[in-house]
């Protein structure tokens, strides 16, 4: 930043002081330039070359106005004359810097040292014929600095310091920059505090801020804002300045003891509150921040019923450690004390802190659920027996009323029952450990008559007895044609559903000349050949009966029939061809009984179904040779063959209308047809002839013959069917003479079906 106005305003002593500083700066710069000036190149010839260029160091002041070019120096050479001229090249040559024929150098532009502090150029001397007279010589033009830039703080500053820090503790280092030459007073800065000097100091040269006293207290003031000034010219009044604000936060330490807000507390608690629940929170007052809050609670005297826990925000939670019982004790009184770890001494609030408070707990009475004597009940029951007294489940009413308790089991299918008054458990049915080894259920206890209820789990472990027969467990057993005597052809084992560890023993039920059973004493046995010489060509089947005992109390045994195949095997006893043995695995009596029962039931059901179907076919089906004959009400003795009034022939007449015997809605055909008071023999004959003719031409129609007394004899009767379904009025080859042999009751039918009148006793015609 240009500071020409400030430069012009300096007069009197200030001007002289500034000029003195400038002179000192120029002298230092020139000396540095002389020291740092590169040495002249030496010639390989070992003699000193006489220098012909003569000039002084050239300097130009920055920010000098250039209304017109101004002179800064002259190039000199011992060879220069009236017939020579100078030429310069390099940085700014012939633009910023110009030279005339006599070597005078001029500046044509305003320069800024902060942009470029020096310019490297070279000079040549030519004659009028542009012949180089003096070899090239390099020179430097230095731009001298003026105080034209103010200091600048390039960033913001924030810091923190613990409260109660010692005097002189470093807080932060504040630095500013100045674009002016740092080797001169123009670029040298001095730091001062404009605000915050009551609590902090700052180093004039380095800008380090430190604490002034030890009385920083976060609870009194948690942060400070310090204003720092940086000034160039080493802090002289004429120097440029810059300011910045520094925020200093005071961090907390644990220098305040936590205290109770009051000296006594009263809490009301229901007696049914669960253990481990929070009764209430005792709030602490602590001026320190929560991370430095470190309270420790204790109860005096020590209590088995209550305890103190620290909450997330480090207050005290009063917790219920054990259950309360209003009927036993209705109130409690104790003291709660608080202390802190890592507390800085002396504390700020050392005057009368409340670190001990009295607590009173008032227990409130509530109607409580029945309480069981145990949290869970476990009983053992031997399987396959009825037990009247498994054990007792007991509960009581904890209230003063002490109401009666009634017990029940919610699971209606439970094999266990309970006495509703005494809580005594018993078996409803026998238990089978092999089906269910452990019975779990809940017993409900309810206050009489309609009070509260509670539940408890009951576990019944079924104790095993030896009530299951062992079962043979085998793989494929075969004998090879090339097996020799003593060969083990297979190993058998057994399984048992009972829980007790078995000690199986295996024996042959019947002596066998081919095989023997050798017990391995590890619940297995080997089947061993007594001799060799078996052959596939032998048609015999080999079967052995093995008896198994489980060694229990009482011991259980079983007999199993084991078939043994004969095979042709290779050298490794791997069979390649076998003759199947008859499968005669033994089946126990208890297995056969259900199978026989099921087969018997199936046979009975099939027979009943066949009988019903036969009856249905005989009574309804039209494809059978037998047709149901509809008998009307008539005395068993009858009125003789001429008595035609004993049965109703109206049904025969009705068949002409629809030709069916299906059931219809409305009155029956017997009710619809009015019976004639008398029956004429001629009318009856005509009616029967008509019906016969209809039956001959309509084979699908149901015959409507009506007999007064005739027993249904079935399809095996020698008389056959009396239906007219298969009868014919003409062309029939059937001989009806046998009707005369049946007696007088069938004489009329014999006459109707073409029997000669001479052969019958009477005729309708």
Automatic annotation (TrEMBL):
<feature type="domain" description="Cadherin">
    <location>
        <begin position="261"/>
        <end position="372"/>
    </location>
</feature>
<dbReference type="GO" id="GO:0007156">
    <property type="term" value="P:homophilic cell adhesion via plasma membrane adhesion molecules"/>
</dbReference>
<dbReference type="InterPro" id="IPR027397">
    <property type="entry name" value="Catenin-bd_sf"/>
</dbReference>
<dbReference type="InterPro" id="IPR002126">
    <property type="entry name" value="Cadherin-like_dom"/>
</dbReference>
<dbReference type="InterPro" id="IPR000233">
    <property type="entry name" value="Cadherin_Y-type_LIR"/>
</dbReference>
<keyword id="KW-0965">Cell junction</keyword>
<dbReference type="GO" id="GO:0008013">
    <property type="term" value="F:beta-catenin binding"/>
</dbReference>
<dbReference type="GO" id="GO:0016339">
    <property type="term" value="P:calcium-dependent cell-cell adhesion via plasma membrane cell adhesion molecules"/>
</dbReference>
<dbReference type="Pfam" id="PF01049">
    <property type="entry name" value="CADH_Y-type_LIR"/>
</dbReference>
<keyword id="KW-1003">Cell membrane</keyword>
<dbReference type="GO" id="GO:0019903">
    <property type="term" value="F:protein phosphatase binding"/>
</dbReference>
<keyword id="KW-0325">Glycoprotein</keyword>
<dbReference type="GO" id="GO:0045296">
    <property type="term" value="F:cadherin binding"/>
</dbReference>
<feature type="domain" description="Cadherin">
    <location>
        <begin position="153"/>
        <end position="260"/>
    </location>
</feature>
<dbReference type="GO" id="GO:0000902">
    <property type="term" value="P:cell morphogenesis"/>
</dbReference>
<dbReference type="GO" id="GO:0005912">
    <property type="term" value="C:adherens junction"/>
</dbReference>
<dbReference type="GO" id="GO:0016477">
    <property type="term" value="P:cell migration"/>
</dbReference>
<dbReference type="GO" id="GO:0007043">
    <property type="term" value="P:cell-cell junction assembly"/>
</dbReference>
<dbReference type="GO" id="GO:0005509">
    <property type="term" value="F:calcium ion binding"/>
</dbReference>
<dbReference type="InterPro" id="IPR020894">
    <property type="entry name" value="Cadherin_CS"/>
</dbReference>
<keyword id="KW-0677">Repeat</keyword>
<dbReference type="GO" id="GO:0005923">
    <property type="term" value="C:bicellular tight junction"/>
</dbReference>
<protein>
    <recommendedName>
        <fullName>Cadherin-5</fullName>
    </recommendedName>
</protein>
<keyword id="KW-0106">Calcium</keyword>
<dbReference type="GO" id="GO:0060562">
    <property type="term" value="P:epithelial tube morphogenesis"/>
</dbReference>
<keyword id="KW-0479">Metal-binding</keyword>
<keyword id="KW-0732">Signal</keyword>
<keyword id="KW-0472">Membrane</keyword>
<feature type="domain" description="Cadherin">
    <location>
        <begin position="60"/>
        <end position="153"/>
    </location>
</feature>
<dbReference type="GO" id="GO:0016342">
    <property type="term" value="C:catenin complex"/>
</dbReference>
<keyword id="KW-0165">Cleavage on pair of basic residues</keyword>
<dbReference type="InterPro" id="IPR015919">
    <property type="entry name" value="Cadherin-like_sf"/>
</dbReference>
<dbReference type="GO" id="GO:0044331">
    <property type="term" value="P:cell-cell adhesion mediated by cadherin"/>
</dbReference>
<dbReference type="Pfam" id="PF00028">
    <property type="entry name" value="Cadherin"/>
</dbReference>
<comment type="function">
    <text>Cadherins are calcium-dependent cell adhesion proteins.</text>
</comment>
<keyword id="KW-1133">Transmembrane helix</keyword>
<keyword id="KW-0130">Cell adhesion</keyword>
<feature type="signal peptide">
    <location>
        <begin position="1"/>
        <end position="31"/>
    </location>
</feature>
<dbReference type="GO" id="GO:0048646">
    <property type="term" value="P:anatomical structure formation involved in morphogenesis"/>
</dbReference>
<dbReference type="GO" id="GO:0034332">
    <property type="term" value="P:adherens junction organization"/>
</dbReference>
<dbReference type="InterPro" id="IPR039808">
    <property type="entry name" value="Cadherin"/>
</dbReference>
<feature type="transmembrane region" description="Helical">
    <location>
        <begin position="587"/>
        <end position="609"/>
    </location>
</feature>
């Amino acid at each position: 930043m240009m500071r020409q106005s400030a430069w012009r305003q300096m007069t009197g002593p200030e001007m002289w002081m500034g000029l003195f500083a400038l002179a000192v700066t120029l002298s230092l710069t020139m000396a540095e330039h002389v020291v740092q000036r590169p040495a002249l190149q030496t010639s390989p010839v070992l003699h000193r070359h006489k220098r012909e260029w003569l000039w002084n160091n050239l300097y130009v002041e920055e920010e000098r106005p250039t209304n017109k070019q101004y002179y800064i120096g002259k190039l000199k050479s011992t060879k220069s004359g009236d017939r020579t001229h100078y030429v310069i090249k390099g940085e700014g040559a012939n633009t910023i810097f110009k030279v005339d024929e006599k070597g005078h150098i001029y500046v044509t532009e305003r320069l800024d040292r902060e942009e470029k502090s020096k310019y490297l150029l070279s000079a040549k001397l030519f004659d009028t014929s542009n012949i180089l007279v003096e070899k090239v010589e390099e020179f430097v033009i230095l731009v001298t600095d003026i105080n034209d830039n103010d200091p600048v703080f390039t960033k913001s500053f924030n810091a923190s310091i613990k409260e109660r820090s010692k005097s002189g503790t470093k807080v932060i280092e504040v630095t500013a920059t100045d674009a002016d030459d740092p080797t001169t007073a123009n670029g040298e800065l001095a730091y001062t505090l404009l605000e915050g000097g009551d609590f902090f100091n700052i180093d004039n040269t380095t800008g380090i801020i430190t604490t002034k006293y030890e009385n920083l207290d976060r609870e009194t003031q948690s942060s400070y804002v310090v204003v720092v000034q940086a000034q160039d010219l080493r802090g002289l009044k004429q120097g440029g300045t810059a300011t910045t604000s520094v925020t200093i936060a005071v961090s907390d330490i644990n220098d305040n003891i936590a205290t109770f807000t009051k000296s006594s507390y009263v809490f009301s608690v229901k007696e049914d509150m669960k253990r481990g629940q929070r009764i209430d929170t005792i709030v602490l007052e602590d001026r320190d921040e929560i991370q430095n809050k470190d309270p420790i609670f204790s109860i005096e005297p020590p209590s088995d019923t209550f305890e103190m826990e620290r909450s997330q925000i480090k207050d005290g939670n009063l917790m219920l450690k054990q259950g309360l019982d209003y009927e036993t004790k209705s109130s409690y009184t104790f003291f709660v004390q608080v202390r802190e770890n890592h507390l800085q001494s002396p504390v700020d609030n050392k005057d009368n802190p409340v670190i001990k408070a009295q607590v009173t707990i008032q227990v409130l009475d509530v109607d409580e659920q029945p309480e069981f004597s145990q949290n869970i009940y476990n009983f053992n029951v031997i399987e396959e027996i009825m037990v009247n007294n498994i054990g007792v489940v007991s509960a009581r009413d904890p209230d003063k009323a002490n109401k009666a308790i009634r017990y029940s089991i919610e699971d209606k299918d439970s094999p266990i029952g309970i006495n509703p008054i005494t809580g005594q458990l018993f078996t409803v049915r026998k238990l089978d450990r092999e089906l269910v080894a452990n019975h779990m259920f809940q017993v409900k206890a309810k206050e009489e008559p309609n009070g509260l209820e509670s539940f408890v789990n009951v576990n019944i472990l079924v104790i095993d007895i030896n009530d299951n027969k062992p079962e043979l467990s085998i793989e494929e057993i075969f004998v090879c044609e090339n097996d020799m005597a003593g060969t083990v052809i297979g190993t058998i084992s057994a399984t048992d559903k009972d829980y007790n560890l078995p000690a199986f023993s295996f024996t042959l039920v019947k002596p066998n000349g081919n095989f023997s059973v050798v017990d391995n004493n590890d619940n297995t046995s080997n089947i061993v050949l007594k001799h060799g010489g078996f052959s596939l060509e032998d048609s015999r089947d080999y079967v052995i009966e093995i008896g198994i005992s489980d060694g229990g109390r009482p011991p259980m045994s079983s007999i199993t029939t084991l078939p043994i195949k004969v095979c042709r095997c290779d050298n490794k006893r791997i069979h390649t061809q076998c003759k199947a043995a008859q499968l005669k695995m033994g089946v126990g009596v208890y297995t056969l009984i259900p199978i026989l029962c099921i087969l018997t039931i199936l046979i009975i059901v099939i027979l009943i179904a066949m009988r019903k179907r036969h009856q249905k076919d005989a009574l309804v089906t039209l494809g059978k040779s037998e047709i149901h004959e509809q008998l009307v009400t008539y005395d068993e003795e009858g009125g003789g063959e001429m008595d035609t009034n004993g049965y109703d022939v109206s049904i025969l007449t009705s068949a002409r209308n629809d030709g069916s015997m299906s059931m219809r809605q409305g009155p029956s055909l017997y009710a619809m047809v009015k019976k004639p008071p008398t029956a004429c023999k001629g009318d009856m004959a005509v009616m029967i002839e008509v019906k016969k003719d209809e039956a001959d031409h309509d084979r699908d129609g149901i015959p409507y013959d009506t007999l007064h007394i005739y027993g249904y004899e079935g399809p095996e009767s020698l008389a056959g069917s009396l239906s007219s379904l298969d009868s014919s009025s003409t062309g029939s080859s059937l001989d009806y003479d046998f009707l005369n042999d049946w007696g007088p009751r069938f004489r009329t039918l014999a006459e109707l079906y073409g029997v000669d009148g001479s052969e019958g006793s009477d005729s309708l015609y």
